[in-house]
Write a structure and sequence with these properties.
The protein is α+β, with helices and mostly antiparallel strands and 162 residues long. It has 6 helices and 7 strands; from the N terminus they run ββααββααβααββ. The protein is globular, with a radius of gyration of 20 Å. The relative contact order is 0.13.
């Protein structure tokens, strides 16, 4: 078995037990071996978030406070408040390194979108959700200076933030 590197873990069913076999190049065990349970929990909570229902709107628990939700509802109305409060800038949570391509970040946004939709559908089967993500620019003096703010938001269908 190689030390470090990437592995794909396959489980083979045998008569006496399950045999775990390391193959291919999927999981980076060198990185995983340095993670604590707290680290893993933090990463998983980004992909499988907790939700809070407030005034019949569904908010990401990490982004939610009654004061913030009330302010957003007063300023944008209920329809846009959900998407506004849930807007999360992924690149403020995780560091973008020079070796990360924009395509890799977009792949991450697509994956998070699928995971958030699956979690919302599981918790709220009677409601329909959408996830939107896009690059946001920073403006100074009316001119866009960069497009490195990757924002992602989940909201009930019809509560879209454009």
């Amino acid at each position: 078995m190689r030390r470090g590197g990437r592995y794909d873990v396959a489980v083979r069913q045998t008569k006496r037990s399950d045999e775990v076999v390391m193959t291919d190049d999927k999981w980076d065990l060198e990185i995983f071996s340095r993670l604590s349970v707290r680290d893993v929990d933090a990463v998983l909570s980004l992909g499988w978030p907790a939700f809070v229902v407030y005034r019949d709107l569904v908010f990401l628990a990490e982004a939610f406070s009654e004061a913030y939700a009330d302010r957003a509802i007063a300023e944008y109305g209920e329809q846009l408040a959900e998407a506004t409060v849930n807007l999360t800038y992924v690149d403020t949570i995780m560091l973008m390194s020079a070796e990360d391509s924009l395509e890799a970040w977009e792949d991450l946004a697509r994956l998070l979108s699928e995971m958030w939709l699956a979690k919302a559908a599981r918790e709220f089967p009677a409601r329909a959700f959408e996830v939107a993500w896009q690059w946001y620019s920073t403006e100074r003096d009316g001119a866009a200076t960069n497009y490195f703010d990757l924002g992602i938001s989940i909201f009930q269908k019809g509560n879209r933030l454009d």
